[in-house]
Design goal:
The structure is a single chain. The protein is an alpha+beta fold. It has 2 domains: about 90 residues, no CATH class; about 45 residues, no CATH class. The chain has a 3-stranded antiparallel beta sheet with strand order 1-2-3, with helices on one face. The longest helix has 16 residues. The chain is globular.
């Protein structure tokens, strides 16, 4: 993926990944679980911006389809475009604690569950985040 075409967003907001009902033979040789695991490691250590797209592809670890694999490759293409991104503490503007939260009510197409995320920032740097 070193020579891939870089993109500006990890997943399109309109992307809704559906459950794979069939067992795809061509997906047997695809390293889907290893790729998602690598992305999760990057997210936990340095890239909180990947929390939502990784949670989307992580839901399909047991039976991924080609559509799910394409979504994983899009996340890698986003990483290619944002290699210079990093966590930075002690930003330029001294601020107190800042928090952001968002909810996707019933956004899961399979069981209509909601998704919630939050991020806490201090001094311009992320100190905590979660996505459920």
């Amino acid at each position: 993926m070193e020579d891939c075409k870089a993109i500006g967003v990890p997943l399109d907001l309109k992307t809704k990944l559906k459950k794979n009902e069939n067992k795809d033979v061509e997906m047997v040789k695809v390293p889907y679980q290893r790729a998602v695991g690598s992305l999760m490691y990057a997210m936990l250590c340095t890239r909180p911006d990947l929390a939502y797209p990784i949670s989307m592809v992580n839901q399909h670890m047991a039976n991924p389809s080609i559509e799910h694999w394409i979504a994983v490759k899009c996340i890698f293409r986003y990483l290619q475009a944002t290699l210079q991104f990093k966590l930075r503490f002690g930003g330029l503007t001294p601020q107190g604690l800042v928090r952001y939260c968002d909810v996707d009510w019933g956004g899961d197409l399979e069981d209509r569950r909601s998704t919630t995320w939050f991020v806490f920032m201090m001094g311009g740097g992320t100190i905590s985040w979660n996505n459920k």
